[in-house]
Amino acid sequence: MEVMKQLRQRAIRDLLRERPIRTQQELAAALRERGFRTTQATISRDVAELGLIKVSRDGVRAYALSPRAIEAETSGEDRLRTLLHDLPIEIRESGLILVIRTLPGSAHAIAAALDRARWPEVVGSIAGDDTVFVAVADRAALGRIRRHLERLAQAGGRL
């Protein structure tokens, strides 16, 4: 069940970036369009857990991620970029899992930054000492995430 919650909350974040959502009912309908069946209570809990706020958007009051949530996502990707640039990494694929090998003692920092970035395609990650397993939703996501990680490693401090 936890995986479905993470996927649903990622879908909510994506929807809020794409268009104005004024009510929980609109949010529930938009989630149904994406294949998520939810109750009003679940939507209400998601709104609270994500810390959604109402802002003026396109002339209407609509839900949005709080600046704190946006900062956490942005800073996660910035941290990930720095780590991947500064540490030697090797990325391999195994089924729907990306395997990132790095220096001993560095895997947890990479996994934590990746989790904090909250990329919708990433279902979850597990870190050992020098290895991170990154589970993704499907084959297309696997390729996108791998390319994104490789670009971040090359970009380093550059945006």
Structure overview:
With 159 residues, this protein is an alpha+beta fold. It contains six helices and six strands. The strands form two sheets. The protein has a four-stranded antiparallel β-sheet with strand order 3-4-6-5. Strand 1 and strand 2 form a beta hairpin. The longest helix is centred in the middle third of the chain and has 20 residues. The protein is elongated.
What's the structural blueprint in terms of helices and strands?
Elements: H1 2-18, H2 24-33, H3 40-50, E1 53-57, E2 60-64, H4 67-86, E3 90-94, E4 97-101, H5 107-117, E5 122-127, E6 131-136, H6 139-155
Antiparallel strand pairs: 1-2, 3-4, 4-6, 5-6
Helix pairs in contact: 2-3, 4-5, 4-6
Distance separating the two termini: 36 Å
Structural class: alpha+beta
Low-confidence stretches: none
Tally the helices: what do you get? 6
SSE ordering = HHHEEHEEHEEH
Mean pLDDT over all positions: 87
Based on CA inertia axes, which overall geometry fits? elongated
What percentage of amino acids are in beta strands? 15-25%
Structure summary:
The chain is α+β, with helices and mostly antiparallel strands and 159 residues long. The protein is 54% helix and 20% strand.
